[in-house]
Structure formats: structure tokens, C-alpha cells
Amino acid sequence: xxxxxxxxxxxxxxxxxxxxxxxxxxxxxxxxxxxxxxxxxxxxxxxxxxxxxxxxxxxxxxxxxxxxxxxxxxxxxxxxxxxxxxxxxxxxxxxxxxxxxxxxxxxxxxxxxxxxxxxxxxxxxxxxxxxxxxxxxxxxxxxxxxxxxxxxxxxxxxxxxxxxxxxxxxxxxxxxxxxxxxxxxxxxxxxxxxxxxxxxxxxxxxxxxxxxxxxxxxxxxxxxxxxxxxxxxxxxxxxxxxxxxxxxxxxxxxxxxxxxxxxxxxxxxxxxxxxxxxxxxxxxxxxxxxxxxxxxxxxxxxxxxxxxxxxxxxxxxxxxxxxxxxxxxxxxxxxxxxxxxxxxxxxxxxxxxxxxxxxxxxxxxxxxxxxxxxxxxxxxxxxxxxxxxxxxxxxxxxxxxxxxxxxxxxxxxxxxxxxxxxxxxxxxxxxxxxxxxxxxxxxxxxxxxxxxxxxxxxxxxxxxxxxxxxxxxxxxxxxxxxxxxxxxxxxxxxxxxxxxxxxxxxxxxxxxxxxxxxxxxxxxxxxxxxxxxxxxxxxxxxxxxxxxxxxxxxxxxxxxxxxxxxxxxxxxxxxxxx
Length: 578
What we know:
- The protein is mostly beta strands.
- The protein is built from 1 helix and 41 strands.
- The longest helix is centred in the N-terminal third of the chain and has 5 residues, at 135-139.
């Protein structure tokens, strides 16, 4: 039995709160397209990762979430926690929309010095900084986006919105969102990196509440085919100095169509970011890694996570009770190639704990084709391929099923590029541009040619040359692939291929598609974290939840679908049970 307690302190009049009661159907974590080694929500819609923060041994992942549908809607912050970046426990919704608007993307920090005043000397608060999106103002073409705060004093389990929100008002910009905040030690201040139309604006604050504009970046630099979103500014210690990298997502305008994430390498002095180059660089050359940002409070580790989809078709992909997954968390490094700084990314080392059956094949002679199907158990998992570049020929790994559906991943020697081809991968007709081949150029000058593939039920992630070229793609076969063949028009030797089957992170869990969520539909004020009564045991016929208030401070009534309440006087506490 769950119990939710909410303190109401605002002057609310009457509000109608609806309970969405869906059928008691179970959604298996092993359905055809459900990722087995990537995080996906139990049910309904998910997009951008938000508020990534490490605190007291736990990695917190908040995310854009709509609990009432599998398509985008009024945004909330979903929440999941992990102690190893691999196994995730989904938590109750952290932030609900309120009278100021939907809860769009943002970040979270540990306020170690309690600059905000939200915490105590012995209990540093977690502070979330997010964008409010006001749908009413948006329809009126007014300044609908501004920044707000929420804080947690119980390690991220419950959140209180700041009573003086918003803390940064809109200066007259349509797209004014996605704050990524970090502490800047040289000047003892917070830095906010904010997406503003097709640029980035930097703000500073001593306390997270009062913000001063410092500078702008991006005019005539990078890709400008769409709106800039979800920026992130992080430092690397390289060659004995600090070098900064600014990540910016763009939609549309990505390298391979739709949405993608570019980055800039340069200097930051606490006020201004200066890029070393005008060249547009991409963190991922695939189609399905967007809105990626890094965890805060992880010391020297730079751990990056993206949303594994694309706005061209995210609302249309053929999954049923849930939509979207996150990429594998990736560790970032800054590397120098021909006097040019490039960001590499590889799966976090923690992923290795999922390996079970490992097969190592050496000196594989490829003469036309080589059937891997009899050598490996299952096809999902990790493939590591080692070759020498001067001896390697063009080749592809073809995953297929008896329906002649196939996913092709490979390397073109002639074009010096890696590619993913999902032209015949299965369900492809839900969006015109989905069925296609796309490529990423080889950036390494090393004679070693190494490829790591992470293959899940409906996704592939390619990490080539120690993560200098990365590609992510999703696919939707009508039946699981059961055959793997390496093909090449010429003969050559693969020095080693290591395959590791991966254990599912879900451990035979099942998830109810039922949300039974209480959220504000009408009224004024803020009910904090919102109300989420019930569980799979909820009985709509007997209406087994109960309501109690402090004395005569609250009046309420309900049926199996709606709950109506009214503040009578003073403050009150609202209890619900399911």
C-alpha cells in the first residue's frame, strides 16, 4: 500500500483532479522491442534526460515524461535511480506541472555550500533548475518560457518548488530553455548555460536565485538548421591545461536529418566561451542520440547520456505501452588528433558487469561471408572487432531473420566511413525518412581499427576507434533477428572478434501500464509533488483510497474517476491511500 502526503500552503480555490485508471494489463519487460540493457520507462512517453546528478552513491536520472500517453504531452520530470549506471529503479514522478506551466528540461546540482539557503549546514540540498513552459502564453505567442527552481532535502526523493519562481524571466525570446548549471570555483559562482533560439547564453549567480547575463555564443558558428537545445558546458584537463567543451543539441538540422548533438571545443573564463574552430563537430553520427548531457558531481569522470530517438519520428515509432529509451551511459574523453581536439565516448566500464557468456574468435578469414550464428549464443550483446586498417577491406555485419528483414552495420574502406543501414530492418513505414543508410567518417589516423557494437532488442550503438566515431540507431524488426553473417566483397583477416552475451537489467520484471495519476487539471496554486495514489491493487469499484484533512480545513468528495477538493481555511495536509 502506498501513501502520499502533500502539504498545501497556497491559496487554492477549487480544483478538479482526475484519476487516470487504465486496464490492469501487464507490459512485459521482454516484449519484442523492449530494451534489455538500456533504460526505458515502465509505461508511456519519455524524452530528454534531465537533472543528471550523482549524490551519496546514487546516480539520479530525471527525464521528460508524460504519464498519460505514449506521445508527447504536458511535461513532467520522471525519475530513476541507479548505483551502477546499469540497473535502474524507476521512482515516483519528481516534478509535476503547475500554474506556471509544464516542466521542461533542466539540470540538478548538489549545493555543497548551501548558497541557495534551501538546506542546512549538515544537509546540503539538491537543487533542480528547469524551464517552465506556459501553454497559455505559448498560444498567445508571448514569452512562454522562464526558469524555475525546486529543491530536495531527502536525497532527491521528494521535491519542493521555490516559492518565488520564476528565478529568471524571459527577455523576449521564443525559445528560452534547458538550463545546465555548474559551480565555477575560480569565482565562487554558479554558471547557467541556456539555449536561446539558435544560440547559447551564459548567466551567473551567487545563490541560484539571482541571475546575471554574462555573454552569448553561437552566432555564425556550428549548425543552424533549427533551434538549439539542451546545452552543456564541461571542462577537461588535457595537455596540462583546462579545455572546455560546449555541447548543443539542434532540431532540426542534424547531420543525418532531424535532431542531433554538436559540440565546440574552446576556452571559458567565467563569462565568455571562445571556440578554437569554426568546424561543426558531432558527438554521434547516427540518427538516434539527442539532448545528451553529463552527470554533475562525478569528479573527474565525464558521463554522458542521450535520448535514443529522433524528433522526425519519435511520436510514431511502433512500440505499444511505452515510447523511447536512453542510450548506454558513455564516458567522455578529450583527445588530440592532428592538432585538433575531439571528444570520444565509450560505454561506461560498469556495463561489463552484465557480461555472461563470452566467445573469443581469432584470425577469422573472411572470404565472401562468415556465419557467426553458430558461434555465438543470441545476437544481442556486445561485439568487439579488432583489425588493422591497412589490411582491412570493406565489410558488414548483417543481422537478419526468416522474414528477410536485416540490419547492416559496417565499414567502407573506399569512403573511409562507418555505416548503419536499416533500409530493410523491419517496420519502416511509420515515417518516410526512417528507412535509410547513414554514415560517419573515420576520424582516427591509427592503423588499429577497432569497433565495439552494443546490440539490444531494437537498437545498435557503434563505437569505433576508441570512441572517436560513434553512431546510434534504432530499428523495429517484426521478429527478432536470429542470424548474423559477416560479409565482404574481398578476402581479409579479422584479428579477433569477442562476443559477450549480456544479462537483462530487468530480471524478468513486468510493468503495469496503469498510472492512476492525480494531476492538476483546473485551479490555482501548487500541490508540490502532486498525488499518485494506488498501485496494481487499486480497486476502482470499491474506491479503496482514503482522504483525510486537518480538522475542517478541507472538503472533498470522489468517485472512481474524479477527486474534487476545496480548501476551506488555513493550510492543510492532503493524504491519499491506494
